[in-house]
Every structure is written in C-alpha cells, then in structure tokens.
Amino acid sequence: MKVILLQDVKGLGKANQVVEVNDGYGRNFLLKKNLARESTASNLNDVKMKQGAKAELEKRALAKAKEVKEDLGGKTFTLKMKSGEGGKLYGAVTDKDISDELKKNGYEIEKKQVVINTPMKNVGTFGVRIKLHPEVSCEINIEVEAL
Predict the structure, then answer these.
(1) Which DSSP string corresponds to 61-78?
(2) CA pair distance 107, 18, nearest whole angstrom
(3) What CA–CA distance (Å, rounded) separates 4 from 17?
(4) May I ask the CATH class of domain 68-146?
(5) Which CATH class is domain 2-61?
(6) CA proximity to 107, closest of 73, 82, 79, 81
(7) Where are the domains of the chain?
(8) What is the C-alpha to C-alpha distance for residues 126 and 93, in angstroms, rounded to an integer?
C-alpha cells in the first residue's frame, strides 16, 4: 500500500513523502492516527500544490530578507542607558533593548533575531549581528550612551 505521510514518522520517512508500507500497518496505524493519507491522484496533486506554495513563500521571505539587509546593514543606532561612574552600565544591553530600538525605527526585528557576541556593559559602540533569514544576516552598530 502506498501512502503519503502527513507528518515525520521515525524509521519511515518525512512529511509529504510517498512510501510503500504493509497494508495492515497503513490502514490500522498510519491512517487511523492521521499520520498518513492514501496515495491517490488527487492527494498527490494536493501535496504538489502545497509544496509549490511553500517554495514560493520561502522564495519571497528570502527576497524580503535581502531587501531589509540592504537597508539595515551598517547602520548605527543609539541606546541611552543608565550608567554609573566610568561609563559602566547598571545591567547590560539586551537583545530586547536592541529589538525595541529597531522597532522604533521601523524595522520589524524580533529579539530572537538579534545576536550579541560580547556583553554590552559599558558605554561605547558595539557590533551586533541581525539574523533576518537562515541564509541572510547583517551587521549593525549599537552606540550605547549614558543617560
């Protein structure tokens, strides 16, 4: 019996893959637990359409990330933080602080996309990497000033 997997099944295959299984295993386990669908012409066509739509969405996301990289890359943003003597900050600049500053400037960057290499605990300028897409990232500068 040929089935189309709806989810990843350990030892059998990945989602949207067509696999050959025993009739009993297919009917009594995979189909009953909604892990697979019978391999018919219409079901195969549905899978192809979904894969095409997913590929198009990924292509658009990559293009948008490259566009944002061109606009955002190399820019400097200023954060004003409370500091003590000698320019030492009370606490440290976090990825949330940077994300909030970018949102104020019109960039929809989530805090999980901000990669801080060295802790920012003093006043100064620091390089930060922004992961826009798994294949696209850019560098920005964060200038930390005392309040």
Answers:
(1) HHHHHHHHHHHHTT-EEE
(2) 41
(3) 6
(4) alpha beta
(5) alpha beta
(6) 73
(7) 2-61, 68-146
(8) 10
